[in-house]
Here is the input.
Amino acid sequence: MSEVILRIKNLTKSFKDRKVVDSLNLEVTEGEVFGFLGPNGAGKSTTIRLILSLIKPDSGDVEIFGKWVTKHRNGSLQNVGALIEEAAFYKNLTARRNLQILANLGGGTNRRIDEVLEIVRLIDRADDKVKAYSHGMKQRLGIAQALLHNPKLMILDEPTSGLDPHGIKEVRELIKSMSDEGITVFLSSHLLHEVEQSCSTMAIINEGRLVVSGKVKDLLKQTDLFTTEIQAQPVDEAVSVIRQLDFVKIVAVREESIKVSVSKDDLPNLTTVLVEKGIKVSAIVPHSSLEDFFLFLTKGDDS
Amino acid sequence: MLWRLIKNELIKIGGKRRSFIGFIVIGILMPLILWGFKVGGSQVHRDMTEQLQENFIVVGSVFNGFLATYLVMNFLWIHIPFLITLVAGDVVAGEGSAGTFRIYLTRPVSRGKILLSKLLATYIYTAALIIFFAIMSLGLGSLWLGTGDLIVIHKGILILPSDIAWMRFALSFIFSIGVMLVVASLCFMFSTMVNNGIGPIIGAMAVIFVGLAVSNLPLDFFVKIRPYFFTTYIDIWKEAFYDPIPWREIGMSILILVIYTAGFLGVSFVVFSRKDILT
Here is the structure.
């Protein structure tokens, strides 16, 4: 059984009278890519800052690699790399100089600096000042600094925020390569389909409280909220065929398409039945169910 | 480890344009002032010796690099703190406003060590600026205007021979560094409290101006509280030119300045260690 390397225990933090994190409990086991979801203001970033000891909890604690952060801050953060929101650097210094500054805090040689710059494909721009970098390059440099001391746990807070599709793809690939190398990743993101794609386990918080946590696959199975758009002709006939099926539910019917709720496992069966009945299926577009699930859990959406 | 952290801070200070403002101002202003003295030096000499000639026989020129430096120190001294605060005010708050703490403080190094490294780097910068001021005033002045006896007005006319004047200037600049470290500590304390680089500068300068008002206005109440204000001792450098040097008073002044510095730094460390990094 995998070891729990990050444990959040009864963590609570208030700003003035508002509880931003409220008795939060979470466990992240070694080797998993853990998705941390919640709407804006749910307390995700505050939780991450509490984990990294950037802010102090009112009560509760965080255990990383068996050490409690409030008591053994330095020891617990020894093997942790982090990128919180938009990467911020000393913009008048070069990327290499920025990494040297961080390497001076422990862990990281000049050789390692070159390695991480290579990983994030910034080695050719290493001696440019950071102020000349695009947002995407800064985010990649942010990941480079987090990798500098060979962390075993990587905490990423909205790493794709503000990136263009190409940048998002690059960051996603970096996360995958980290996971492949055995680094445990704690990923906070508002891009729910990204969590669905990248993460094996997830937790959803709202108003500082844990709403649900578990394996992404299991959670989707439980909810059965997988919605799919089917473009088929003739639509009327397709609708009447689908209505006879008990494993699928029609959500909406449009001029040239039908939106249905069907589990991932049953989707191939639905396609087969439609084709067998002579319906011309031109496209099947799955829509991430996680959005619906997320809205359902965090806003009480009963649709 | 601490040296590596200090090196980090010095690199960061060196990477900011504002860090060079003090050096540029002094680097431009001092040669200009000295050039002004060189050109108009004979007039200054006439004005000064007019009164002296009634009682003394003045041989040669009293106007030299020493006197020029002494005069410059007198009228520039109140402006130097501002140049110090430009960096001292930004060293912690600047990281807050830029958001760089959210990377820098996630490393396994204690906040105490990081703050100590920032403080020591600020002190190194402060000392370097005063030393640069000394080089540009005393060094350049003595090369350009020559050296000689130094005439100082303190309870009458005091004439310090050239060899003693060198030592007195050295002592004076050491005192100056000490006083400016107190100013830097005050600004540093404000810097730990906010997340913008301007607030600490305004805060520190406001405290200094109010303090100087208390230290200089001849009101009874102010006279009573004056000894307890650190700004009263901001011109302690002048005492290096008294004869004899009032070591007892200087010792008391230093003690009060050390107490203030300890207070400023104590507050800085408590504030910074408890500070929530939200930017």
